[in-house]
Amino acid sequence: MPVGLFRVCVLVITAIVNHPLFFPKENGTVPENTEEIIQKMKEREERLRLERLRLEQEIADQEATQKALEKAAVVVEGSKEEKVRWDMWTALSMVIFLLIELWRQDFQEGNWQDTGGEEDDMAVLGKAFKGVTFPNKAVLASFYEKRILGTTGDMARMREMVEGFADDLLEALRSVCNRDADMEVEDCMGVGSMYENWRVRKPFVCDLIVPFAPPEPYCFRCQTWCSGDSFPPDEQGYGTIKVCRADEDATGCICDKTKLGEDMLCLLHSQVNSTRPSSDMEDLLCFKNTQYLDADQVMKWFQIAVTKAWNRISHKYEFDLSFSLLDSPGALKIKFKSGKSIAFNLTPVVQYENSDVYFISHFPRSSLAADVPSSTLWFLTFAVYERRFIQLVSKTLPANACHVSCLQILSFLHGKQCSLTGPSGLTNYHLKTVLLHLLQARPSQDWAPEKLEARLQDMLKFLEKCLHEKKLYHFFIGNGKVPAELGFPIVFQRAEPLNLFRPFVLRRDIYRKMVDTFHEMLRNMSALINEYTVHIPLAHTNGIRKEPL
Predict the structure, then answer these.
(1) Which of 223, 506, 517, 535 is most exposed, with the fewest beta carbons within 10 Å of its own?
(2) Between 480 and 279, where is the model more confident?
(3) Is 174 exposed, middle or buried (CB count within 10 Å of its CB: 0-12, 13-18, 19+)?
């Protein structure tokens, strides 16, 4: 009990002591200060809240930006992986396609010589012949006699006249040239349809090639696309001609032919010094600052030389001589006072080594050398061997064989069609190449005169196949079956076959024109032949035979 009372007393005393009335009056302003402090705390709390909101907004923006970057990175990474997968599939597809194409080309090139030799091959062709009426033997024989033989009788006399005049002109050319500085001109040779006896279209034009050589002590070093040097695909069939001194090798150095001392160094082959063409290279018709013969320079030189030669001998003749084509310096025309004229081509060429293959500067009236990449590139012509091959095969064929007749008829039809629908990429050289392939593929007895109709159909079907495949191989290049009697250079026999239709693969407009012209020629064939054929009674069709060539 006393302890409880003591505790109550202490509590009362403490309450009385802590009563506000016991504080001094100067402390009466405390409530007012408390209100200001509370107001300031509220303001500070508001500022802190706004600052927190601002920081939260910045953090949210940063998080959104980070998410966008991560998403973009994921998209980029996915696209990279997708692109890598796509590139891998594309590369794999290209490799498979190239392997298939190489296999197909190897298979076809391995059998290209035998394409026209089997009747089964011919049986699957001829789709373009559906609905085409082909003339019979009697109509073809009458057409050949009236239209072909009747217009080619003067070719022999014309060849003789042109060759005689060309020899006289070249002799005068040699006399006006400086033998110490100008090119040396050799005798001309006749090539082409006029000398292979299948020319049918007028005007008759003789093609003569004129080999020339550099003056001493220079010589020509010839390089071809198949000689081991790297030539791009569009330069196949071409070569270059380098003018060198006779005592130099192909690189212009004699160190390989001279025994140098062990302590002697060839300055020409050092890393510091390099070969420079001599200052008189341009006088030798070379391209500027090179040692390579320039076809344009040769054309200009030849035209000037022919003009000088004609001025020297013009008084001996009663006709005029002029250049018929500005872009062909050797395209000449003889004009008689009576108004008649004779055209012929005199084209400069360079002999390839010791063969009858020639580098030709240009092709008159032909698109074979169109779009030549450079004037230092020369096209190779095998015209001399083509003429010899036809002569060689003709000796093994039956009397009055129909091989030349087929080419003449086909050339006539093609020329007539081109006069109606305009020229196309298909040329007479392509037609002759078809004949050369079939002459080698078929036995001799198949070219008997009574088989003219069948062989003409074979030529058309073979040409149709080549147009469909866009492949017509050069007869000599890559052909290991060339008769040894011709003495044809082995380097060209071992070369890859040259596709004469390759320039038309990427030029679809020209290729389409070729195909359309061929099909139009087939449809118009009977009409063109009947136009020049007399009416033949049906009862006598079996008794008509072709006159000998």
Answers:
(1) 535
(2) 480
(3) middle
Parent domain of 195? 124-248+281-534
- String of DSSP letters for 31-95: HHHHHHHHHHHHHHHHHHHHHHHHHHHHHHHHHHHHHHHHHHHHHHHHHHHHHHHHHHHHHHHHH
Q: Is residue 339 part of a domain?
A: yes
- Taking the C-alpha atoms of residue 522 and residue 525, their distance in angstroms, rounded to an integer, is 5
Q: Which residues of 69-103 are buried (b: 16+ CB within 10 A; e: fewer)?
A: eeeeeeeeeeeeeeeeeeeeeeeeeeeeeeeeeee
Residues near 393 by Cβ (< 8 Å), separated by ≥ 6?
403, 439, 440
Model pLDDT for residues 358-395, shown as the tens digit of each residue = 999 877 655 444 466 688 999 999 999 999 999 999 99
User: pTM (2 decimals)?
Assistant: 0.71
Q: Residue 516: which residues within 8 A CB-CB, separation 6 or more?
A: 421, 424
CATH of the domain at 132: 3.30.460.90
Side-chain-side CA neighbours of residue 409 (13 Å): 30
Angle at 64 between CA 63 and CA 67, to 5 degrees: 85
Query: Which residue did the predictor score with more confidence, 178 or 27?
Result: 178
- Residue 254 placed within a domain: no
Residue 140 to residue 526: CA distance in whole angstroms: 10
pLDDT in tens, 16-58: 655 555 444 444 444 456 777 888 888 888 888 888 888 888 8
- Peptide bond connecting 217 to the previous residue in cis, omega within 30 degrees of 0: yes
Report yes or no: 369 and 356 within 8 Å, Cβ to Cβ. no
Residue 536 predicted with pLDDT over 80: no
DSSP letter at 279?
Answer: T
Q: Is 158 exposed, middle or buried, given 0-12, 13-18 or 19+ CB atoms closer than 10 A? A: middle
* Confidence check: pLDDT of 277 > 60: no
Residue 530, domain member (yes or no): yes
- Which tokens sit at 256? 């390989």
CA 156 to chain centre: 37
Distances (CA, A) of 466 to 400, 500, 502, 515: 28, 10, 11, 10
Q: How many domains does the chain contain in total? A: 1
* Whole-angstrom distance, CA of residue 366 vs CA of residue 382: 15
Residue 160 falls inside a structural domain: yes
Residue 316: which residues within 8 A CB-CB, separation 6 or more?
168
